[in-house]
């Protein structure tokens, strides 16, 4: 890639040009054996000036601010996957969120102002990249399959777009009976489903930007709490899940929130809000508006055109038959049928004659080892616990002297309502270790029922 090409696309200074040339040389060494990935990164650098100019025009980024964004990009690009780079505002959002006051910093004081950048990666950004890898976010929208009960009965839907083209999501939480939710899904699935909803909204924003030519990155949320009971508002699992979700959102989706409108809120909504508020930064609290039973329709109309807002929310939009409740596209809270309750799911391994029992004492763990002698072989597993959850992971090392590498990420898995199944392809020859971990439990031993783990060798 020649210097004239840099100048054509990036308009850089001499110092920046030298930095880019050094960076390109590093890329060529790292990806010499992987030409396709190298081309992905080269294409990104070629297209980045256009993306940055487009982003700058919509976000009104100054030259000084762009210098900070470019520095964060330069120092962290090695850790970013091509899929992550599809987000044009990625570096802007984390530079701003990472306590880098873009309007008050110049390029020459960058190192002095933020030492995390000098070491290579800003703290919030590095945590985000680690979280994306752990959650496998590059393929999360397509790979994660939420339980059917969440897809059918979770009261959330897209209303459309606000006056500035931002996605608007509606949540009918007030009448939702959380006791039936927790009877039907594990807490981890409720959490993952929430992440999938977020990713879906941002994908819609990306598609909207491509269609209109106007950058749209933020989302508006309407929460209808009509009918909320004290029991639901003070539910321990609800509050724990909301806290986890809030922390995840703040850590991994900075500058994504445009507005939250909470309406029809009863007085005991303060129970939930008083718990959440301490973890919310002031910039987020400023974007939240809470209303009782009056004043909220005007607030919604400030954001959405009346023709786009459903009639029951104060707009003019109705179903084709004139129904103002818009039941054809609004997902209302409704009772979850008993057939989805986890207690009704039959345990498949409990009476299986081929299943082996593995008793794991409290504060201990058990490991199963498999010597794979031929690449392309596979390992399948199926297990369930009698009560509570169990830690599970799979590690690999080529020989006994090497440190193991995690190939199935560690996670605490609830299998007391049904078995956990999985499969991996053994690409390399070596030792594969399956871990069942109960070391975090000081009080409860675990009885693990499992079908023998099968190893299929390629011939």
TrEMBL record:
Family annotation (PROSITE patterns): CRAL_TRIO, GOLD
Name the InterPro entries on file: CRAL-TRIO_dom, CRAL-TRIO_dom_sf, GOLD_dom, GOLD_dom_sf, SEC14/CRAL-TRIO_domain
Q: Which residues form the CRAL-TRIO domain?
A: 146-321
Read off the CDD domains from this record.
Answer: SEC14
Q: Name one GO cellular component term.
A: cytoplasm
Which segments constitute the GOLD domain?
A: 346-459
Per its record, how is this protein called by name? SEC14-like protein 3
Gene behind this protein = SEC14L3
């Amino acid at each position: 890639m020649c210097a004239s090409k840099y100048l054509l696309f990036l308009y850089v200074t001499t110092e920046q040009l030298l930095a880019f040339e050094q960076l390109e040389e590093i890329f060529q060494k790292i990806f010499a054996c992987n030409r396709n990935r190298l081309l992905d990164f080269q294409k990104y650098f070629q297209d980045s000036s256009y993306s940055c100019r487009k982003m700058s025009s919509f976000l009104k980024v100054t030259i000084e601010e762009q210098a900070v964004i470019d520095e964060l990009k330069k120092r962290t690009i090695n850790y970013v996957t091509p899929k992550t780079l599809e987000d044009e505002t990625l570096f802007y959002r984390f530079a701003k969120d990472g306590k880098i006051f873009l309007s008050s910093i110049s390029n020459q004081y960058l190192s002095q102002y933020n030492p995390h950048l000098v070491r290579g990666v800003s703290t919030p950004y590095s945590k985000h990249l680690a979280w994306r890898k752990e959650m496998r976010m590059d393929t999360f929208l397509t790979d994660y399959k939420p339980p059917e009960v969440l897809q059918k009965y979770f009261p959330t839907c897209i209303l459309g777009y606000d006056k500035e083209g931002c996605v608007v999501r509606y949540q009918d939480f007030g009448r939702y009976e959380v006791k039936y939710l927790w009877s039907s899904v594990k807490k981890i699935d409720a959490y993952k489903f929430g992440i999938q909803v977020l990713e879906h909204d941002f994908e819609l924003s990306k598609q909207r930007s491509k269609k209109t030519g106007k950058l749209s990155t933020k989302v508006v949320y309407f929460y209808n709490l009509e009918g909320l009971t004290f029991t639901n508002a003070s539910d321990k699992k609800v509050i724990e899940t909301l806290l986890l979700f809030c922390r995840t959102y703040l850590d991994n989706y900075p500058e994504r929130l445009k507005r939250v409108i909470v309406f029809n809120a009863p007085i005991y909504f303060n129970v939930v809000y008083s718990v959440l508020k301490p973890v919310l930064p002031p910039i987020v609290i400023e974007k939240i508006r809470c209303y009782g039973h009056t004043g909220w329709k005007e607030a919604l109309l400030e954001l959405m055109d009346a023709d786009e807002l459903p009639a029951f929310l104060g707009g003019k939009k109705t179903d084709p038959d004139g129904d103002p409740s818009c039941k054809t596209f609004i997902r209302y809270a409704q009772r979850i049928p008993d057939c989805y309750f986890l207690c009704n799911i039959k345990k498949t391994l409990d009476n299986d004659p081929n299943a082996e029992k593995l008793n794991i004492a409290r504060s201990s763990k058990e490991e199963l080892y498999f010597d794979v002698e031929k690449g392309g072989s596979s390992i399948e597993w199926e297990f369930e616990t009698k009560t509570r959850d169990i830690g599970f992971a799979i590690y690999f090392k080529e020989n006994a002297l090497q440190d193991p590498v995690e190939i199935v990420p560690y996670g605490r898995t609830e299998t007391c309502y049904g078995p956990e199944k999985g499969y991996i392809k053994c690409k390399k020859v070596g030792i594969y270790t399956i871990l069942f971990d109960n070391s975090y439990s000081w009080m409860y031993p675990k009885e693990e029922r499992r079908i023998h783990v099968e190893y299929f060798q390629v011939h």
